[in-house]
Amino acid sequence: MEKSIVLSVVDIGNTEDLSFVKRAAQLYQELVSKGAAIGWIDPPSIEEVTCLLRELTIASDEGNACLIAAWVDSDLAGIGWWRRYIRPTHRPHADIEKVAIDPRYQGHGLGRRLMNHLIPLLSMLGLRC
Questions:
Q1: What pLDDT digit, counting tens, does each position of 101-115 carry?
Q2: What is the pTM of this model?
Q3: Residue 46 has pLDDT above 80, yes or no
Q4: Spatial distance between the Cα atoms of 46 and 102, rounded to a whole number of angstroms
Q5: Distance between CA 47 and CA 67 in Å, rounded?
Q6: Contacts for 46 with CB less than 8 Å, ≥ 6 apart
Q7: How many angstroms separate the CA atoms of 103 and 96, rounded?
Q8: What average pLDDT does the structure give for the chain?
Q9: Rounded to 10 degrees, what is the CA torsion of 65, 111, 43, 85?
């Protein structure tokens, strides 16, 4: 892939950035409509994705989540995040809940690159997945 690829932690504190929310919703809708097993039976609405991002915002502000986006030039090419368990006995653990790559960019190692960013962030906080 000849294009510029940037992976960055998303400041999800501002879900009012509707361009990101809209693009994230479009990505999930496309993947689910093509049969991707990423947690939805039917493609999620923009409202559902907005609620999810708000939940991640709260968890992120408390150090309990992290969302990473992969950008190819100005396109949102992928999203991945982890979220820490809430129960006190499970606090040292987190799950990488979703890694989603736009079909146009699949097969170029973006999913691996997202995972290679998510896992070290967990380790830095002393969390295990």
A1: 999 999 999 999 999
A2: 0.83
A3: yes
A4: 17
A5: 18
A6: 21, 22, 25
A7: 20
A8: 85
A9: -20
Pairs from 95-99 (Cβ < 8 Å, separation ≥ 24): 95/129, 96/122, 96/129, 97/39, 98/38, 98/39
State the Cα–Cα distance between residues 90 and 122, nearest whole angstrom.
14
Q: How far apart are CA 43 and CA 46, in angstroms?
A: 10
**81, 87, 30: which is closest to 53 by C-alpha?**
81
What does the pLDDT read at residue 126? 72
Q: What is the pLDDT of residues 64-87, one digit of tens each?
A: 888 888 999 889 999 999 888 877
- Cβ proximity of 48 and 32 under 8 Å: no
Which residue matches tokens 């999913």?
Answer: 111
Three-state secondary structure string covering 61-81: HCCCEEEEEEEECCEEEEEEE
